[in-house]
Specification:
Layout: E1 4-6, H1 8-14, E2 20-22, H2 26-31, E3 38-39, H3 45-57, H4 60-71, H5 75-89, E4 93-97, H6 103-115, E5 118-122, H7 125-136, E6 143-148, H8 154-163, E7 168-169, H9 171-175, H10 193-213, E8 219-222, E9 227-228, E10 231-232, H11 235-243, E11 246-250, H12 253-264, H13 269-278, H14 280-283, H15 285-296, H16 300-318, E12 325-330, H17 336-352
Parallel strand pairs: 1-5, 2-3, 2-4, 4-5, 6-8, 6-11, 7-8, 11-12
Antiparallel strand pairs: 9-10
Helix pairs in contact: 3-4, 7-10, 8-17, 12-16, 13-15, 15-16
Amino acid sequence: MAVKTVDIEDFLQLAQELPVFDVRSPAEYSHAHFPAALSFPLFSDEERKVVGTTYKQISREAAIKIGLDYFGPKMRTMVETAEALVQKSGCNKIIVHCWRGGMRSAAIAWLLDLYGFEVYLLSGGYKAFRKWVLAYFDNGLPMMVIGGYTGSGKTEVLNSLASKGEIIIDLEKIAGHRGSAFGNLGLPPQPGMEQFENELSVYLRKIKTELAISDKKWVWVEDESRRIGNINLPEGFYKLLKKAPFIFLEVPFELRLDTILKNYGKFSKEELENGIYRIRKRMGNDLNTKALQLLHENNIKGSFEILLNYYDRFYLKSSFSHERILKNAELTGYSPNEISDYLIETKKMYADS
């Protein structure tokens, strides 16, 4: 057999079925990687540093010789590791890539091909994938946006839509953050910006494929500001989001306050205090101090009431746009299942108009 070199489109198609081996160093992989890729490093971080320094300061040939010293003793272990990994996929095919399709991926591809695996090598490596990622956000996508003030239950409604076969984008799930000063509570650290872009682009490609083969015409997404925690939405995608029509969920203040209390009242005073401090500058000292005082007095509802009023005003300034509203959904009760039914019916009316 011979190693087969594939371009980015073939790689993305094959990666839906085959294991992807990222042979870059552990630090490179940890920084960001193709979402489904498995870390399969040729060199450790320190070994990569030594080889790279030798390449720059001495010669290519000297670097290759040092690389071979590192590679030789690992060959059997790497083959056995590859065997164990491909057993899970049920086939003998593997995709390999490094940073830009150079010597690291070529070495691993040669070894695995020699042993008997069917090996595909990504032309241009991870660098080619990143080029595709950054260009992908400029592609059009028919979105229907769910708007509403904080506590309207937009994420629950999205999940209900998904359970009924609708196609959704849960940006907060991909970003690992709920989008407010308290949005990281109870969650692991957010991915880095590059990893978020990787995850989002691959997911968008997946749902575009679903759109093409289904009778669905729109994708549901929650209205978001440009920033979700430490993540900035990609410029091209953000522009699409802000141009898309949306249905505004008008949920009464008291119901939204009850939702906020249920979702965030379970966290410690210290965690809530840290969140309140984070918005002190934007909120203003007086209101921020009052919210903290009520929190310390165990009046969590009173504290959250001040915060919710602040977020309502903030939403008006940052996200709300009357020109984009397709329909106001005036809701006197809250049930994600009922709201999702209403949204599906509204979408049908919009599609027929």
